[in-house]
Task: structure prediction
Amino acid sequence: MTETDLFEVVNPATEEVITTVELAGLAETDAAVARARAAFDTWRRVAPADRARLLRSFAAAVDADREHLAALEVANAGHTIGNARWEAGNARDVIEYYAAAPERLLGRQIPVSGGIDVTFQEPIGVVGVIVPWNFPMPIAAWALAPALAAGNTVIVKPAELTPLTALRLGELALQAGIPEGVLQILPGRGPVVGQRFVTHPDVRKVVFTGSTRVGKEIMAGCAAQVKPVTLELGGKSANIVFADADLARAAATAPYAVFDNAGQDCCARSRILVEASVFEDFLALLEPAVRGVRVGDPTDEKTEMGPLISAAHRARVSSYVPDGSAVAFRGSAPDGPGFWYPPTVLAPVRHDDRAFIEEIFGPVVAVVPFRDEQDALRIANATEYGLSGSIWTRDVGRALRVSRGVDAGNLSVNSHSSVRYTTPFGGFKQSGLGRELGPDALDAFTQTKNVFISTEE
Ligand code: NAD
Result:
């Protein structure tokens, strides 16, 4: 092989090197695109029922390998074993859900004069998927499953830091009978392999999940070839707590809405907005909840939060909490090896503090008061992002008004759930473009063809 370099994959909870992975260079990327292009001609013509059967076999293979996949993610990404099991199950569910799609990609028949008019949902071609390190398994599955179901071929580039579960998914697909070249996993550097997806004319669609900065570069690069993109980018989501809410529940759940996955979650509710009349009461309830978050060994079933992904990322997260910051209270974190950072609550916080404006992507949350509904919406929407958010109130009318008023793609009322594989997921504003999951994702991997057939004699 030429142009390859070796990357040491590190366990973020122990700082030990787990294994070494070869990163592809440009020549390997071009060869993978050529294989995917060749495979597209046959894969798109596989009968819908057969494509469905192959995807069901793939889902079954993932199901049988769930414990192994979960253990890989615990070691590679420091995810808690509970989370990692959920993620492996989510990958299976997503593949199974889209296994139903090949036989249901319906077109339309549109009334016209002089003949009949029908539409087809055609695949796009080779799809390049660029995955970040924070949820390596689900994010790969959310793109590859609907893309394959619609008849595209796929190359997944995992993040440099976390290639192991994606590589395993690739092996499982082959074991399940998905033909060679239809799904390839290509570990590599973003500016090399990822960038080649953007510039290679035979990659006809790019799916990118990651930082807003890189997402903008990808979108600009894809414009040169009018290449469609799906972008899932950053977030700075609001958790809005009204005085009439079940305050105890809102406070007990708020830590998990931001500290889950050590805050490395684009949907993290990293700004808590609390109605001024209950601000102190809420903080008093929040403190024991934050101190109670179990941070430690991710292999321990009782652990609720693991380490950050890397030393560099920990340094970035720490930079948002310089000495002298208004830390209201903190949870704990282990000493010794591992990229640990304790759950941290900032209050009071100015609205122009960078910790209140920028995505920290770590276990740091800022709590601020608001006066009334209008004030809550003003603060919630005063951000370039718009990914998710939560609204806590017992007033149904207000729940709906505020849900409609928050400029974000995924909202939950009296709950913090953002992701279900059956419902659409994606961002407003600079949080992204396009929708993944649910029925919507298939639109991102098909293009409509219109055919008119004359019936004139
Ligand atoms: P990142 O943008 O640096 O990297 C993401 C992926 O892009 C990696 O695979 C990386 O190798 C690749 N990449 C980097 N530079 C590239 C380039 N020039 N061309 C092509 N590909 C390139 O982000 P990260 O540090 O891995 O992930 C953290 C960020 O991702 C956070 O800001 C977070 O908000 C965002 N994120 C968003 C979502 C979402 O669904 N909205 C999900 C996960 C992460």
Summary: The longest helix spans residues 81-99. DSSP finds 15 helices and 18 strands in the chain. Residues 5-233+430-454 form a domain with the Aldehyde Dehydrogenase; Chain A, domain 1 fold (CATH 3.40.605.10).
